[in-house]
């Protein structure tokens, strides 16, 4: 088989997931070595593609890519994380009967989990209990999920996620899209996939054929990029190819302590995304899943970064919505400084620099 294996499959087959393989890319620090050893004891998944590993700084253990990929002993600490986080967060303990592959927080849209495999196992993953630690084992029964969607006419928007749905074969992805498009009440299909960032080789001509074409039901993609260093010429090409299929590519960044929580990096991240045609969508507060305390900042941090590095400092196209995902849906955490005062005649409004202006109040 290997003689005609596609490059993206080769990348997955040769995942950098042992200390020996990692040593080909970086000088592994004693702390990293301990983290890897600890992960081995717990049968905890880690690793990334050779492509993504090649972007690591060989000498700096604080490299933003190394910190997202290499396990840390800090993952065994859980002071602030919520136990059974995923069950709580995805409303899996409610009365509504739902297949395990369906997560629901809203009336008109759902998350459809189709696999627990990823091209990279992010240390900060909020689905860690399912994807990384594998204490939970869901049934990823695609037929069961499709049938549930058919029976729920209020669902107009299906977000296919996992794991990473783009690790599935072209045939499986084509099947999912075709079956969803047959359902009259499905108006849009979304994929959450980190492949444009960690495995851009996945966007092959064959996959493009599966995704392309004008259709009643459009496809949208959101990826995850947390640091400008993750973006390369290959990312640019993959995103461009997706756009030629009629697909918009957005970004869902996670605010990560020591990785993207300073003004310079934060602004560079959002500007670099635009330079490869990725539109920032969400900035997520790092969720209280177990074992990721060390990635979390105070909640206010994201709003401060938007005020001090994005709004007014660069184009509004670069601005993500800052949210925290909770069991009652995503909650907006945007900077709150605009309204100073409202009188009968006017509003007093404040900008990102603290300057004040007025706007006439037009009564209803
Ligand atoms: C995030 C999420 C969605 C999609 O939300 P949008 O704000 O529309 O992107 C849908 N269902 C679940 C369960 C989610 O967590
Ligand atoms: S790609 Fe997504 S699902 Fe997979 S480990 Fe990273 S954050 Fe979790």
TrEMBL record:
Record-linked InterPro entries: Aldolase_TIM (IPR013785), LAM_C_dom (IPR025895), Lys_aminomutase/Glu_NH3_mut (IPR003739), rSAM (IPR007197), rSAM_sf (IPR058240)
Keyword terms: 4Fe-4S, Iron, Iron-sulfur, Isomerase, Metal-binding, Pyridoxal phosphate, S-adenosyl-L-methionine
Protein name (Swiss-Prot/TrEMBL): Radical SAM core domain-containing protein
Radical SAM core domain ranges (all copies): 104-318
Organism: Desulfoluna limicola
SUPFAM superfamilies, A to Z: Radical SAM enzymes
Signal sequence annotation: none
Cofactors demanded by this protein: [4Fe-4S] cluster; pyridoxal 5'-phosphate
Pfam families for the chain: LAM_C (PF12544), Radical_SAM (PF04055)
The family this protein is said to belong to: Belongs to the radical SAM superfamily. KamA family.
């Amino acid at each position: 088989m290997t003689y005609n294996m596609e490059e993206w499959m080769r990348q997955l087959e040769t995942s950098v997931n042992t200390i020996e393989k990692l040593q080909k890319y970086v000088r592994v620090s004693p702390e990293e070595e301990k983290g890897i050893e600890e992960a081995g004891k717990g049968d905890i998944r880690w690793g990334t593609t050779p492509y993504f590993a090649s972007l690591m700084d060989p000498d700096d253990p604080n490299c933003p890519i190394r910190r997202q990929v290499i396990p840390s002993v800090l993952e065994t600490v859980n002071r602030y994380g919520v136990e059974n986080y995923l069950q709580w967060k995805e409303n899996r303990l409610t009365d509504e009967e739902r297949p395990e592959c369906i997560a629901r927080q809203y009336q008109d849209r759902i998350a459809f989990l189709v696999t627990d495999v990823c091209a990279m196992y992010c240390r900060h993953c909020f689905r860690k209990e399912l994807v990384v630690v594998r204490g939970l084992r869901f049934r990823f029964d695609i037929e069961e999920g499709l049938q549930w969607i058919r029976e729920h006419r209020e669902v107009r928007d299906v977000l296919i996620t996992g794991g990473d749905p783009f690790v599935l074969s072209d045939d499986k992805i084509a099947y999912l899209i075709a079956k969803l498009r047959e359902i009259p009440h499905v108006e849009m299909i979304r994929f959450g996939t980190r492949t444009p960032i960690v495995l851009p080789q996945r966007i092959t001509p064959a996959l493009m054929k599966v995704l392309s074409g004008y259709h009643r039901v459009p496809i949208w993609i959101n990826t995850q990029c947390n640091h400008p260093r993750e973006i390369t010429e290959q990312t640019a090409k993959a995103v461009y190819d997706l756009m030629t299929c009629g697909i918009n590519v957005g970004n869902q960044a996670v605010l990560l302590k020591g990785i993207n929580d300073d003004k310079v990096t934060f602004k560079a991240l959002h500007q670099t995304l635009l330079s490869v045609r990725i539109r920032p969508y969400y900035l997520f507060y790092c969720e209280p899943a177990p074992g990721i305390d060390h990635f979390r900042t105070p909640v206010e941090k994201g709003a401060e970064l938007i005020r001090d590095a994005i709004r007014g400092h660069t184009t509004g196209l670069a601005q993500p919505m800052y949210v925290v995902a909770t069991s009652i849906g995503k909650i907006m955490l945007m900077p709150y400084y605009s309204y100073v005062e409202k009188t009968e005649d006017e509003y007093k409004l404040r900008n990102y620099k603290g300057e004040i202006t007025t706007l006439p109040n037009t009564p209803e």
